[in-house]
Amino acid sequence: MTDRPSFADEEAVLRRARSLVGKTLRELYGAVPEVSGKGGFGTLLESLHFGLAPSTESAPDFGEAGLELKATGLVRERDGWKAKERLVLNVINYERLVEEEEFTTSSFYRKNRRILLVLYEHQSDTKPADLRVLAVGVVDLERLDPAFALMVEQDWRAIRDAVRAGRAHLLSESDTFLLAACPKGSKAGKELRKQPNGPPAQQRAFSFKPAFVSVLARAVLDQQAAAREHIVEDPSELVRRRFEEVVLGRLNAYSGMTVEEIRRLVDPDMTLSGKARFADLTRRMLGVRSRRIVEFDAAGIEVRTVRVEGSGRVRESASFPAFRMRELVRQSWRDSDLRNQLTRRLLFVFLVGPKDAPRFSHAAFWSLTEEDLEEARRVWVETVRRIRQGRVRGLPKKSFSSLVHVRPHGRNSLDVDEAPDGQKVTKQCFWLDSSYLAKVYAATKPVP
DNA sequence: GCATGATCATGC
DNA sequence: GCATGATCATGC
């Protein structure tokens, strides 16, 4: 039994929630119990502000209003607020999940259909009671962008089917797009739970992936980015096919065609000029023109167009956005922009042949392995070390790693970044090595 | 042929 | 006006 205050309805809960906006818990409640660590803010919020006892019930926190309370930290980025982390929802009961047939009657859906989202500004080295609430709002799965609702449902099915197949222990967060099965528990592998058709698996919870939380948060903040296009114009398409099939199907329809043939089909008016011309073409193959794609933003998908020479060799490495050295040295690997980029799902589009007239080969989704990430960490750590030492003209180059290296990425040599010690060098970024791209090409190339 | 440094065209 | 995605240019 839990001791629950009764909020008569949604409006009563929301009134209570809105009184938080712009404040910290210490401002509202004075001396508060000392809590720390992850979830500290959420724990205080439940007990102090809403009078909820800790609960592991399968029903939402506010039964009458049908609202599940969740808090999430945001950080301010150049182009708006971004979620600091994934939003962890209910723990997955593998044995129950495999029995579930319909999404809308699932325990996940019943618990999380409507979430009361409390957004606070994340500050490192700040006690939970001193974090400031930015906004509150309701995230209702039924009222989301219809494509999102269907993508969440598809992700739920993918996770369920993996558990049905006895693969709960192999679930990875990169298997899905918006909703993931994330490890949950003290230390990886320590908290094992039974799964019906396979070996004991680490405890996992359903979670919204960070990019999706950012989208949800910006909707609550009413700061949705403008001028964005959908890949899926008719959401019913997602009733029949999985999102990745829609994306790959759309691209792979052009397999074997030259870029000129594709250009005539997708947009005869476009000129194939500029260094990013094949990336421009890729967007039109997907049916959009804008660089901002709603579904890709929400799923954190990064598209990279890669040209492969006839021999299977890739000449150019793939760049990531330029970094600022002063920001880089303040980050930890765990929270770094590079790790964030590399744990996203990558969508590679391979063009084969001479640079003036290549043919589209195929497109494939790709995720880096834990081993790859460990190598990226090594490069990142060394980069930070050298910047701190003032060796900003000698950052890890291609010969340092066959996965990731550092190279200039400015508009020209006058486009500079300032090191912590004041030295100025051309803006730099991390690059994913061309030899790695060649490996991905070989691994994903369809067998003729 | 390759590593490294520099830059282009576009769109946000 | 700048970031972005990608290619170009140079020198060994």
What would you say this structure looks like, in words?
- By secondary structure, the chain is of the alpha+beta class.
- It is 31% helix and 21% strand.
- The chain contains 16 helices and 17 strands.
- The chain has helices at 10-18, 25-29, 40-49, 94-97, 107-112, 146-164, 210-220, 237-240, 243-252, 259-266, 277-285, 294-299, 325-328, 337-342, 370-388, 434-444, and strands at residues 68-77, 80-83, 87-91, 114-121, 133-140, 179-183, 192-195, 198-202, 204-208, 301-308, 318-319, 345-352, 359-366, 404-408, 416-418, 424-426, 428-432.
- Strands 2-1-4-5 form a four-stranded mixed sheet, sandwiched between helices. Strands 3-9-6 form a three-stranded antiparallel sheet. A three-stranded mixed sheet has the order 10-12-13, with helices on both faces.
- Strand 1 and strand 2 form a beta hairpin.
- The termini are far apart.
- 32% of the residues are buried.
- The structure holds a DNA duplex (12 and 12 nucleotides).
Main sheet characteristics: 4 strands, mixed
Spatial extent as radius of gyration? 24 Å
Q: How many beta strands in the DSSP annotation?
A: 17
- Coarse structural class: alpha+beta
Mean pLDDT: 90
Report strand %: 15-25%
* Unreliable residue runs: none
As laid out across the biggest beta sheet, the strand order is 2-1-4-5
Secondary structure: helix percent: 25-40%
What overall geometry do the principal axes of the alpha carbons give?
A: globular
